[in-house]
Amino acid sequence: DTAVSQTPKYLVTQMGNDKSIKCEQNLGHDTMYWYKQDSKKFLKIMFSYNNKELIINETVPNRFSPKSPDKAHLNLHINSLELGDSAVYFCASSLSGTTYNEQFFGPGTRLTVL
Amino acid sequence: SQKIEQNSEALNIQEGKTATLTCNYTNYSPAYLQWYRQDPGRGPVFLLLIRENEKEKRKERLKVTFDTTLKQSLFHITASQPADSATYLCAHYNQGGKLIFGQGTELSVKP
After folding, report:
1. C-alpha distances in angstroms, A21 versus A42, A62, B86, B87?
2. What is the dihedral of CA B55, B13, B6, A105, to 10 degrees?
């Protein structure tokens, strides 16, 4: 029944490590997104893929690299983690051309960098 | 630059009252605004969309208004319940196709 799923739910790691977050959607959507929500709860777009093509690439350090192996999956790899990367990362998906173009969000991955 | 702002102060109301949340935008005219609900530890969930040519949109106990003169959208929850306690976010797609969120308003409904 899960629409947009992310793994892991929690990620605690040391500074300098490399980590990945995975996202999958079973809604048949063609567009997927990564958002970052900081400690002040501000939700900001990072990347967006449409049909496996990168269409939005915000001003994000190049330590962050998204990868979309197919329309249903969008992963986020982060190199050389820094303290400031600690946040909750949300994956989302949508179907382009719909009436409301609403986005469906995953449960989030809380990343803590020590 | 385009801005979308919500009252960042938490809103505390008594059960049964109407909650009213505000979303203001500046430096642009969105064709529509979306409202989402976010519970602690969860992702946002889409609630309603209102277009610029719609003055009001309703869904059960929810009502959204859109005033293009005031550059403001109001989100109302009538007969509020403790289960309505959450953070409510307004959002719009900018010209670059990015969904831009306000900072959200936390609503707490006390029994």
Report:
1. 20, 16, 26, 25
2. -90
Query: Reading across the β-sheet that carries B72-77, which strands appear in turn?
Result: B3-6, B19-26, B72-77, B62-67, B56-59
| Cross-chain Cβ contact A100/B49 below 8 Å | yes
User: Which residue in the set A48, A55, A105 is minimally distant from B44, CB to CB?
Assistant: A105
Strands A104-105 and B99-101 turn out to be unpaired
Contact A100 B96 (CB under 8 A): no
Residue with tokens 């719009």: B92
Q: How, if at all, do strands B3-6 and A87-94 pair?
A: unpaired
Give the Cα-Cα-Cα angle A100, B33, A98 (nearest 5 degrees): 10
pLDDT digits (tens, 9 = 90+) for B64-109: 999 989 999 999 999 999 999 999 999 998 878 889 999 999 999 9
Residues 62-91, chain B: which have Cβ within 8 Å of A?
Answer: 87, 89
